[in-house]
Amino acid sequence: MKADPVIPAANPRNAGEELLAEKERFRSLIEAIPDGFLVTDLEGRILNVNPIYCRLSGYSPEELQLLSLSDLEAAESPEVISRRIEALAAHGRDRYESLHLRKDGSIWPAEITIAPHLAANELYMFVRDLTGIKILEAEKLRAEEKMRNLALHDAVTGLPNRRVLIDRLKHALAASRRNKLHSAIILIDLEHFRDINERLGSESGDFLISQVAQRITGCIREEDSVARIDGDEFAVMLNGLSADTDTSASQAGLVGRKILDSLKDPYILGQNPLFSLPSVGITLFRDAEDADAILRRADMALNKARMAGRNAVLFYRELD
Question: Homologous superfamily of 12-133 in CATH?
């Protein structure tokens, strides 16, 4: 009878060396990862961390190993984190954006990719710093908002432009039809603005226009609005005046004369006073057919005020 073969006993020293070698390979791997990397247990307690995450968070490895994921999360509660970990057993992995806390209390945006290693009862978490991406996104949004603003507002005064005025006029017309209250459009035109702009330069012209915009804005109520609709032409919309035509005309005329008086004073640029007398045309509306018709009536009143020698306020109804 042959004896059973003798199987040599495992060398504890070799097993220990292999374990150390495996740990060294794992350490080298996580240190080579370009993003932050965390190893946690299934309760979210931190077991291991790479230098990238230490740099991002401001914590040392020893400090992080005393913390859990809930200590680092600024956007999610411990309950939400626990539900995420529980769901990993079913889904295998998860990816989401969150906010992490640094040691100094500041917050930074992060993209989290987390996967379980169930055999070892561990979670592997890759953490990408999104700070640069979020800055670029914010700059893009600001640029888009600036472009939208430029499309709807005058670059010199910041006032709404003709496009916005037409839109607001349509809304005001619809409101006037519902509530039976009159509203009004006031058009203001400046004398010799183009001559000033050409003689003294565009900076002087811009100064004059900015001052005009401020003076007109100071003459109206908060619920009313001002727009610059051409180089030397402004429009004021007065909303919800009165159901009575004469009362509404009196209210609009009062604002028109107030604007006229405010624009007669000189504009001081250095040592040189600038003068630019305005003309003012006004029309009431409540049942007008459309916004263009309202503006045409106001423009007819404005032209009549110009022909009268400027420094005048005229209503459309006075043209008959």
Answer: PAS domain (3.30.450.20)
**Is 241:183 a contact under the CB 8 Å cutoff?**
yes
Q: How far apart are the first and last CA of the chain?
A: 135
pLDDT band with cut points at 50, 70 and 90 for residue 14: low
Instruction: Locate 201 and state its tokens.
Output: 């330069």
Alpha-carbon distance values, 205 to 112, 212, 301, 302 (Å): 55, 11, 26, 22
Cα–Cα separations (whole angstroms), residue 195 to 169, 228, 320: 31, 19, 33
Residue 248: is its pLDDT beyond 70? yes
CATH entry 3.30.70.270 includes domain 154-319: yes
The structure's pTM equals 0.62
Q: For residue 75, what are the contacts with CB-CB under 8 A and spacing of at least 6?
A: 98, 99
Residues known to be catalytic: 232
> In terms of DSSP bridges, do strands 46-49 and 36-41 run parallel, antiparallel, or are they unpaired?
antiparallel
Beta bridge partners of 126: 37, 113
In the chain, where does the domain assigned CATH 3.30.450.20 lie? 12-133
Q: Give the pLDDT of residue 126.
A: 92
CB neighbours of residue 3 within 10 Å = 5
- Residues 175-224 have pLDDT tens digits of 888 899 999 999 999 887 777 777 777 788 888 899 999 999 999 998 89
Q: Cβ(34)–Cβ(52) under 8 Å?
A: yes
Confidence band, pLDDT 50/70/90 cuts, at residue 256 = very high
Determine the Cα–Cα distance for residues 307 and 310; give it in Å rounded to an integer. 7
Tokens of 195: 């001559």
Q: Where in the chain is the domain with CATH 3.30.70.270?
A: 154-319
DSSP assignments along 127-152, one per residue: EEE-HHHHHHHHHHHHHHHHHHHHHH
- What CA–CA distance (Å, rounded) separates 137 from 301? 49
Phi–psi pair at 112, nearest 5 degrees = -110, 130
Tokens standing for residue 24: 């060294």
Q: CA dist 133 to 114, 145, 181, Å?
A: 20, 18, 51
